Amino acid sequence: MQHKKHALVIGGSLAGLLVGRSLANHFERVTIVERDIYPDQPAPRKGVPHSRFPHSLMLRGQQILEQFFPGLRAELVAEGAIEVDSMKDMAFLTSAGWTTRCSSDLRLFTCSRDLLDWRIRHRLATFPNVQFLQGASVTGLLTDAEHTKIVGVSLHRRASSTPQSTEELYADLIVDASGKASHAPQWLSALGYDPPPETEVNAFVGYVARIYQPPADLSVDWKLLFVPTAPPQRQRGGAILPIEGDFSEGETASQCSDPRNTRWIVSLVGGNRDYPPTDEAGFLAFARSLPTPILAEVIEQATPLTPIYAYYGNENRLRHYDQLSDSPAHFIAVGHAACLLNPTYGQAMTVAALEAMTLDQFFQHHAIDDLNHHTRHLRQQLAKAHREAWLVATGVDYRYRNTPGKPISAATRFVSWYWDQLMELMVDQARVYRTFMEVLHLLKPSIALFQPYILSQVVWHRFNKRLRRLRIGLD
Ligand SMILES: Cc1cc2nc3c(=O)[nH]c(=O)nc-3n(C[C@H](O)[C@H](O)[C@H](O)COP(=O)(O)OP(=O)(O)OC[C@H]3O[C@@H](n4cnc5c(N)ncnc54)[C@H](O)[C@@H]3O)c2cc1C
């Protein structure tokens, strides 16, 4: 295999870190260019303000992270991450009722986004061929003389004495992982290329979150509480996600006197412009309006540790880099820069992990010069990695009444109807619930929900319901 010299990643948040890890298997040198200076402990930073929100990492994502960084899960648990059996320890209220609870091997860890990023950065920094260029903002892309490929980036270093000074950095592969606000489409346009076509699905979802110290004497039979929205009927939802305990300033998580000291990230969500408020009274009133009083009751006994943070721009946006026929080679986009997902479904970090795996597999079989002709093929592979998550997120968001551009085909109406039947079955059928969880955690494709056993249960359930209605004279 031909030697691959230098890969450059724009943005060192989760997608950039995971892609950096996978490229380290194949390139002599990987440079991750990050605008921020990283904090030296798990803490929020300017470029990732959303780290204050719950970040659930799906099981497929957890598996990939463990492959990339063996022992990571154990390290996180030692730092205070919580182990959760997702079928036994999660109280999940569907539109049809609480799901059945039973022990399973679908075992997750939950922790803050800050702890996860910090641990991954720490592990990646031990790779001798990975370099972090912190405090450096990429300002544009560079092409070769023939105008056929991207060969580098222009950047500005924050510490530079002359504010306008620009440096150029060259590489064989450039990866945009600069997130939702990526300027890559504008950078491509400035070079005379077409920007990628975009698809947006916006259900106008608002999201607020706050960290709490749970009450010391709390006695509940769950670790994680999940009351998702269920549009179109239920456009409000909420959740409690346990995370590692706090640790005082200057102390690292592992030095914390009691790592079992769990905190909660409590989040509230509203679709169809029903944005949850950020004031104390409004937050509690919204929590009380959920279809179960449990969330409001327990937070009334808990101690708030932070202000209430809001994130109101939760649209889904797909940049179709895979559809560009005349676009420069040796340039790709990953993470939210390529596929922005409504974060309330908790899939984006797992998608980033799947994209990193895709790159790993691609470079096991391709030399760097293959990108001259195969960049589009690589982009198509990356598009496959986010397709399933995109369909799930937009499928649910289209169920809100006022989401623009809603498809109204018989097929979408059937999927919507089928979804409602599944929610009802999950209340007492552990096997159906388990398959649903495997799909949710991106362990199985959503087609698994249409396997013969589940299809037959849906038909049987529907038949029984109809029969009951006939008996009591409703039909
Ligand atoms: C409110 C909220 C909640 C979420 N909850 C979940 C969840 O539960 N589960 C889940 O899987 N995902 C969740 N996500 C998604 C997740 O946080 C990430 O956004 C996602 O994994 C994509 O990350 P990213 O690395 O592509 O982008 P980002 O995390 O947005 O990072 C982009 C990085 O690029 C840097 N950067 C930007 N421009 C430049 C530049 N020009 N030069 C150099 N550096 C630059 C930024 O400083 C930043 O570090 C949530 C997102 C939000 C907003």
Automatic annotation (TrEMBL):
InterPro entries: FAD/NAD-bd_sf. This is 2-polyprenyl-6-methoxyphenol hydroxylase-like oxidoreductase.
